[in-house]
Amino acid sequence: MRKYLANLRRSRVEFGFGQEDEDFRAEVRGWLGVHAGGVTDRRTWERTLGAAGWIGLGWGASGFGNRTAGLTQQVVWAEEYARSGAPPRSGHIGENLLGPTLIAHGTDEQKSRFLPPIAAGAELWCQGYSEPGAGSDLAGIRTAAVREPGGRTYRVTGQKIWTSLAHEADWCFVLARTEPGSVRHHGLTFLLVPMDQPGRIEVRPIRQMTGTSDFNEVFFDGAHAEHVVGGEGNGWRVAMSLLGFERGVSTLAQQIGFAEELGAVVRAAEESGAVHDPVVRERLVRQWAELRTMRWNALRTLGGSGDAGAPSVAKLLWAGWHQRLGELAVLVRGAAASVGPADWSAATPYELDASQHLFLFSRADTIYGGSDQIQRTIIAERVLGLPREPKGAV
Ligand SMILES: Cc1cc2nc3c(=O)[nH]c(=O)nc-3n(C[C@H](O)[C@H](O)[C@H](O)COP(=O)(O)OP(=O)(O)OC[C@H]3O[C@@H](n4cnc5c(N)ncnc54)[C@H](O)[C@@H]3O)c2cc1C
Q1: What is the pLDDT of residues 209-220, one digit of tens each?
Q2: For the chain, N or C: smaller number of CB within 10 Å?
Q3: Residue 8: pLDDT band by 50, 70, 90 thresholds?
Q4: Ligand 1 center to 162 CA (angstroms)
């Protein structure tokens, strides 16, 4: 199994990395080797990454990224980052979602104002899309933004939910209804809202079963916003364009992380002796084979030969795969995996071990970024050409 995992890591050659990319890999690995260990404060870490020029590699010729890296070097950076054991990025939403969206739809003034602080790791962002009544069906948004008469400023009122990193963010991009009485995807506007507005914005962390609070409820009560991206009423187009940036090179990096996690489960199975159980062996090999298939699918898609359903197929595959890995991780660990904190509801944070965390957190994988059911609907309609699902009023 170890040999298989090593092969999987080596398989990057398939993507067509040249000598320049391998030199770049050596530079990245060297830098991360010195800096990635022992990060304690994620905000300072973002500034360290920015100062060293590692943010905005994929911003192309916009002139706002720290350096211009081609697709292969972006993949190298993402792979090495995943392998380094550095903490998850707090700046991911600004760098990979808002940055490309501003480059595509922002005014020159907006690019100059917002892109440099993202590239410096100085301003963090969160994504204000989902609401209690608008998740899979995002067009059900009710948060309203009203423009002050004769002015440029909007007043935003409503509630967002599941807002990752809102408790750390300086800014939030908010999809809000600016045309009273409009329905569905009409009359929506993409607004940039500063989070530091005491009394007008309240962030309430949501406690998860993992014991941590990665996301929040966010309440807006007349919050000010003056930056509109893409023009008033064009929010749906901008919002959908942003979702298109959610995928891409990060998929391959994610698979490096998956390979590391699978490797840890294999090691745990070897240590506990579970590896001698034929059912466990069969499941470990299946996980490996499926991870390999996902890699080929990702390479095919990045190489431009994916079809309209490719992102949905990839999401369905990895979400289910990761959940099954979590189930396998606790199976391999045995009865000890069921021993948790004395009081799961306690207000104080608790620590879970890696297998418990993987098992519990991966329950979210089939929900965010478009649930399994939604991905199957997309494949049914766009690839198989099955009759479209009835929608509400338009
Ligand atoms: C870890 C995590 C982080 C997140 N971070 C953010 C964030 O930063 N910003 C943000 O805006 N949102 C975020 N979300 C929210 C996420 O986008 C939504 O949870 C997701 O869109 C699903 O919406 P919902 O939770 O309202 O569930 P619902 O849409 O209510 O779905 C409930 C169930 O019904 C099913 N269902 C719904 N509609 C259909 C249909 N038409 N056909 C078949 N089945 C259907 C779903 O598949 C699901 O099983 C995050 C979610 C998670 C889990």
Answers
A1: 888 899 999 999
A2: C
A3: very low
A4: 9
Ligand 1 centroid–CA 205 distance in Å is 18
Query: What is the topology classification, in CATH, of domain 125-232?
Result: Butyryl-CoA Dehydrogenase, subunit A; domain 2 (2.40.110)
CATH of domain 250-383: 1.20.140.10
| Domain spans, the chain | 10-89, 125-232, 250-383
What type of residue sits at position 47? R
Q: Would you say the CB of residue 215 lies under 6 angstroms from ligand 1? A: yes
Mutation probe of ligand 1 site: the residue of 126, 129, 136 with most atoms within 8 A of C-beta: 136
* Single-letter residue type at 69: A
State pTM to two decimals. Answer: 0.92
- Cα–Cα distance between 49 and 30 in angstroms, integer? 14
Quote the ligand 1 centre to 111 CA distance (angstroms): 30
- Identify which of 319, 361, 355, 318 has the alpha carbon closest to the alpha carbon of residue 338: 355
DSSP secondary structure letters along 217-255: EEEEEEEEE-EEES-TT-HHHHHHHHHHTTSSTHHHHHH
Q: What's at 386, amino acid-wise? A: L
Burial label for 63, CB within 10 Å (0-12, 13-18, 19+), is: exposed
Do 77 and 54 form a contact (C-beta atoms < 8 A)?
Answer: yes
Q: Which residues contact 247 (CB under 8 A, 6 or more apart)?
A: 311, 314
Angle between helices 250-272 and 354-361 (to 10 degrees): 130
